[in-house]
Amino acid sequence: MQGRVRRGVAAALVVVALAGCGNGAEAPEKARPVWVVQPQAAGEAAGLAFPGEVRAREESPLAFRIGGELVARRVDAGARVAEGQVLAELDPGDQALQAQAARAQLAAAEAELARAKGDLDRYAKLVEQQLVSRSAYEAQEAAYKAAAGQVDAARAQWEVTRNQAAYATLRAPHAGVIASRQAEVGQVVAAGQTVFTLAADGGREVAIDLPEDRIGQFKVGDPAEVELWSRPGQRLPARIRELAPAADPLTRSYAVRVALDDAVAGDVVLGQSARVFLGHGAAGAGLRVPLAALQQGADGKPAVWVVREGKVASVPVEHGPLGTETVEVRGELRADDWVVAAGGHLLREGEAVLAVDRGNRPVAAAVRPKAD
Q1: Residue 286 burial by CB count (10 A; 0-12/13-18/19+): exposed, middle or buried?
Q2: Which of 48, 266, 289, 314 has a CA-to-CA distance to 57 between 20 and 30 Å?
Q3: Any idea which architecture 32-46+285-366 has in CATH?
Q4: Where are the domains of the chain?
Q5: Is the pTM of this model over 0.85?
Q6: What is the distance between the alpha carbons of residues 62 and 198, in angstroms, rounded to a whole number?
Q7: Can you tell me the distance from the alpha carbon of 198 to that of 167, in angstroms, rounded to the nearest whole number?
Q8: Exposure string (b/e) for 162-183, b if CB count within 10 Å is 16 or more?
């Protein structure tokens, strides 16, 4: 029994001795797979995109200046109209009667003025002959002035009622397209109630809403790009024309108008859906990387991991406004670098990695040395 134990111990010593005869090198560390992407030019990245609707630069709500029953509607939504064209009419009956009454009052006032003028002329002769007192003449003179004032008032009232009779017809103030209609024949409308919305010919723009956390990033005049849903992939140049000074009390968002360049506005149809890209294409724009690629460097400042010749290196960067999926960065990062898109917090400087794309396929370009 003891002999068997001694033989087993001897065998173990032999194994240990053989292991000690090795070169002492540790087993190579297995490369960690990392998902890599190349940065995009800031003007080409998806970035901040906001849905909107194509609107006319000038939109006029059209309404009657008086109230009444709508008896005729000459145009409908989508119709193109010329300046001065009749759009709708109110029942003119009441306005015509008021105009007749005002004209009759004016005629009566003019007749009273003529009588007062004749009396004044007679009293002037009588006072010269000292047949009436001076006070009687002055009383007649005051009556004449009062009659003249009544004529002026009656004439003004007649002008007002005559204008109101003309207000029963709604005309287009300028050429354009009827964007919407808000009244029907037979409906009683009040003075100032919108009947049509007229989109003037000329400039076109896109109405969007900016959330509160984005309003400070943009200003009037900043460049933008507009992509119509009917023309995917085609972006039209534009600029921010207007920023609302206050947020909407319900949505807490800020209304923004983005004006299209006049050279392309003519091909855009009112009411089209569009996406507006902001913060891209500006002079000096940097590169965009996935938001998850932005890490904290060893010095506590922003950095990204890049894969060069199969190893990761930390590259310091400065970043701009954070987008929903990407962020614009500037610094030592190059457009041909391969950036670690996710999991950067698990890496360390100089660590060997296996660069793969989104489909888990090896990226050979991230391993090969770059040409000088």
Answers
A1: buried
A2: 48
A3: Beta Barrel (2.40)
A4: 32-46+285-366, 48-57+202-278, 60-91+171-198, 93-166
A5: no
A6: 7
A7: 18
A8: eebbebbebebeeebbbbebeb
